[in-house]
Amino acid sequence: MGQFIKNALELGHEIWVYPGNQYPGAKIIPTDHISHIKTLRRMDALYIRLENRSPSILSWSVGLRRLLYGFPLVVWEFNTLPDELVEQPAPSLGKKGKFARYSPGCDLAVCVSPSLAEIVSEKLVFRHILTVSNGSDPDLFGPGIPVVPRLLPFQDKFNVVWIGTIKESWHDLEMLGEAAKLVWGDETGKAIAFHLIGGGLSRFMGGMPPNVFYWGAEQYDRLPNWLAGMDVGLSLYKPSKASLGSPLKLFDYMSSGLAVVTTEHPLAGQILKQLNAADYVIPHGHFQALAEVILKLSRDRERVNQRGMAGRQLVINQYNWRTVVKQIISTMSAILQDK
Shortest CA distance to 80 belongs to which of 235, 263, 243, 266? Predict the structure, then answer.
């Protein structure tokens, strides 16, 4: 959201948010009744970012609230498939679910992957659907920036990183741990270090081998300094609705110039195919294959660097936040003109 707001502002637009969601440059919507109504009636669009559950603000897409606030345009951004839509086939939705009830008032659905767009369009009714993946900021992330001091003792290692949280159950840290054990047991694997960055992961460390290091949570704007000290970035999932998403870590790894290794994932697989790196896509749970790829990469630093720089160039050319935000707002503007 910070990148969306930053780039929208740089493109000359105005962004308003509610208190508690402040970002640099965004204006705060007043909450007293009259000022609240007056402010919202000035808006060109209501932009709702969706994850697992339906927020109450979803009802503003239709009915009296829509009429009161006078939104010319309503946009829903799907970052994953909401829980309400996971199991239900389209015919059974009727008008029972909130998403089905309010989707007729949505002028534009933004989906972060083709797979997600396909499912959402089957289950709900939208006037327009735009598919645009997440991205990264190649000015923020990149090789050669200062490395965090805690990584200085690892400068002579081959460093493999995984970033994430336990907010979702689809991350496969068990696969990482088993692969790390195989790497630790290999004679040439002693120079390889695995790094975990994210909140609430300490409970996974009990059975980890000595080559796995847990650094806790980190602020997003500090992640570039961690990734600058890494060689390979991991994106590991269990079979789940994660396959419908657009992994943010994937693009930040690429922007930082890391070679990427991922489990099977439609969008990630498509991107690695663009980079002639389809051999870095591992079957779900196949920790032996993951260990083999890591060991192979550690023996060919030049290839790792080449793959990493190719990925960074792809972010610069295509998968960057400026391009993503520009595409979304251009689509919104075109729909507004039609309306």
Answer: 243
